[in-house]
Amino acid sequence: MLNGRVGVQDFTSISTKGKAVVDYVCVPHESLETIKHFNVLTMTDAIADIKLQPTSIPDHSMLIWEIHVDYKLNQRQDDVISPGHSVKRYQLRETPDDFLSFSNIDPLLYEKITAIEGNLQCQKDIQRAYSDFLELIKTEMDNRIPCKKTSALNFDIKKNNRTRKPYWNVELAAQWSHARNCEKMWLKSNSHVNKGKLKSEFCQARKCFDQLHRKVKRQYRQKLQDELTEKFECTNSTEFWKTIGQIGISNYRQNKIPWAVINEEGRLVTDQ
Questions:
Q1: What span, in angstroms and rounded, lies between the C-alpha atoms of 197 and 194?
Q2: Which of 81, 112, 113, 248 has the fewest CB atoms within 10 Å of its CB?
Q3: In this predicted structure, what is the pLDDT of residue 187?
Q4: In sequence order, what DSSP letters do the residues of 239-253 get, joined into one string?
């Protein structure tokens, strides 16, 4: 939080009922170094600076901050992220129940929390203590939580592929591309004569896409229904129930039964 840490501070709400700090600016801890200036400008000061004659004065102040980013505008994303760069992804679903509860972690954890509480008078000490606390958490996550490394360039591509519809085909993609082109031509046109015509073409292309989309989706669902009916009529019912199990919320079911107990020595024991 920038309020109280960086720059000049003031109340963010001033009215006849009182004054208070109700508006905040929150940034990631690792981005604090990029904030070069922070200022709370009250509405009375802002009105006086621009020499305005207001009929009413708002209660909330203006929060202004400056960010320094070392980045070239003409630099492409491919140049920023190298092809071999990987991103670490923690498997948080496999977090153990005794995370941050080991005997060798408790003293360090309490030490970092005490350092944060004891260094409230100096902002630099707070940031240093908080950085040490984050490093402790990160080290514990590296040691206790499984993680996978994924290519930074291929992660977005794989994510976009997962969101594609199973019934999407070439004809549907071509119609969607045509509708997009018609929309761009209509929005970029400055001619009053052609603007109405381009809008009509866009509406017609969008209507054709919607009709084709409903048709393809309906055919896809009918195909799945026919396949399910065919498996139901077969003598082998295993494939039918296996297909039923892959439909709906069954894909998101999770085993909530804790197959573990704590023995007399205080250790977590499983049958694995």
A1: 5
A2: 248
A3: 74
A4: HHHHHHHTSGGGGG-
CA 155 to chain centre: 14
d(CA 14, CA 257): 54
Task: Give alpha helix (H) positions in 30-94.
Answer: 43-49, 77-80
- The residue whose two tokens read 């003598």 is 235
Q: If you write DSSP's letter for every residue of 127-150 in order, what string do you get?
A: HHHHHHHHHHHHHHHHHHS-EEEE
Taking the C-alpha atoms of residue 157 and residue 176, their distance in angstroms, rounded to an integer, is 20
Structure tokens at 78: 């491919």
Q: What Å distances lie between residue 194 and 70, 177, 183, 184, 207, CA to CA?
A: 45, 21, 13, 13, 20
Q: What does the pLDDT look like over 121-136, one tens digit per residue?
A: 665 566 777 777 788 8
Q: Which residues contact 122 (CB under 8 A, 6 or more apart)?
A: none
Tell me the torsion sign for CA atoms 157, 163, 169, 173: negative
Q: What whole-number distance in Å separates Cα of residue 85 and Cα of residue 77?
A: 12
Q: What is the pLDDT of residues 157-168, one digit of tens each?
A: 444 444 467 888
Lookup: tokens for 265: 């020595």
Query: Helices 106-118 and 123-144 sit at what angle, rounded to 10 degrees?
Result: 160
